[in-house]
Protein 1
Amino acid sequence: MRSRAIPTQLRVEAPAKVNLHLAVVARRADGFHDLETVMSTVNLFDTLNLGKRNDGQIEFWWQPGLARTGIRVLDSALMPMDDRNLVVRAALLLKNYAKASDGVSIALTKRIPTEAGLGGGSTNAAATLWGLNRLWDLNLETAEIVELAAQLGSDVPFFAMRTGLALCHGRGERIEALSARDAPAIVMAKPASGLSTAAVFRACHPDAGGMLSERVISGLRDGRWSALARSLRNDLQRPAAELNGDVTRLQKDFDRFGLPFHAMSGSGSTWFGLCDTLCQARRCAGVLRARGWPWVFAGQCRAVA
Ligand code: C5P
């Protein structure tokens, strides 16, 4: 019989996401909104280093990643080191659920900006669940991990599914994996100011008219989503722009590039554009940096760590 080695140290990469489409369909009685959204991971990663502890304690700290990605877009007040942080909440939830006696020290290197609409906190939580499932040798099924993820936040199940590209409904937690033949290049920029997800949702006007047609959905299922970019939209753009004037300024800078598709991600404040090549994405990134935007990134869609 072959035994699988259980690690005592583990490194987990947690990718960012963008919403290629986000229709806010209805306001619900529980205060959330029913959505139809298409999410793709991006090859921008936070890194979690997990070390097993025998005393059952959960210890957590974080540090900013590369200086190039900028501390100016990481708000320390939004990154507490106690159980207000989704990483610690994910670890406690899993420990309770699985009745695990082990503990863990978690060191997070943060490169994904906060209040950006890039799913930074959610991807950290999903990476914590999967990392601890391995470190604590729990052998939970994907369905169990995704169920726990839904208790932590609306975007966490998408990351917990590790599909890379998905069509999501409900709060965002009902997920249909999409296959895509292409992984387009992407350029993203974020102003120094962020946006609170709850505030943007409060200011939006739900409208089922923004939902994708069956024709577009079947195109997405066939992986032809980049050709369907003109049918995609983000209903949170307008309320976000009303709350933060930098969003409109960013949009205007992206307008000049003539890209096939550009939009805000999630509840903002990051704006992104899809490019034909990585070379083009890097050229746009250079222009955005010269225009003074404090955080700019050029990379590729669909990263599965
Ligand atoms: O689920 P999560 O904690 O990430 O959501 C943050 C806030 O965003 C919620 O408290 C809610 O105000 C808003 N939200 C919403 N509808 C969704 C997802 C989030 O209204 N589908």
Note: The chain has nine helices and ten strands.
Protein 2
Amino acid sequence: MKNLVVFASGSGSNFQSIIDAIKDGSLNAIITGFITNKAEAYSLERAKKYDIPNVVINPNNFDSEREYVSTLVSQLQDWNADLLILAGYLKKIPSEVINKYDQRILNIHPSLLPKFGGKGFYGIKVHEAVIASGDTESGCTVHIVTEEYDKGPILGQSKVSVSPSDTVEDLSKKVLIEEHKLFPDTIQTYIQTLKNK
Ligand code: GRF
């Protein structure tokens, strides 16, 4: 059984889909901890509701990057993290953590990477750019986190069609429905591959 530590900055609907997949038995893992950078994030309420150990770690509240990184790493060690799951986490993961958890950090991005990825493409900005481009399809991607934003190996993608009348909200809703299936399914598949290593 793998231990997941989930990171989120927002509402945490993807976090919820992971909680639900574990409950219904389709994802064979335990969430040993939850980290947010925002004390007011609704995702933190979800962690509390399900008695998932949680902490607010805001990089801006540390005197130095070194202090921040060592707090983060010792928390991950306390929770025996096997995999770090970025479910709408808006802070950059420090290089030291990326190296320490090499191939063990997964992120979900609301576009068909490599399209509409990289610095500046987050949240509704992604959907705005997709609509502005006139693309007729979009979707979501789960990938391994590396040092370069949104560039790590792709583990899974799911597509939605974009119609000319779609607003940013319409597209965001359609993509989120796919995210909620893709993320837990991809984590489960990835866990299976880790077992065979
Ligand atoms: C999702 O669209 C995800 O792809 C992106 O951030 C959003 C988080 O949504 N990385 P939620 O907080 O899981 O509802």
Note: The first strand starts at residue 2 and ends at 7.
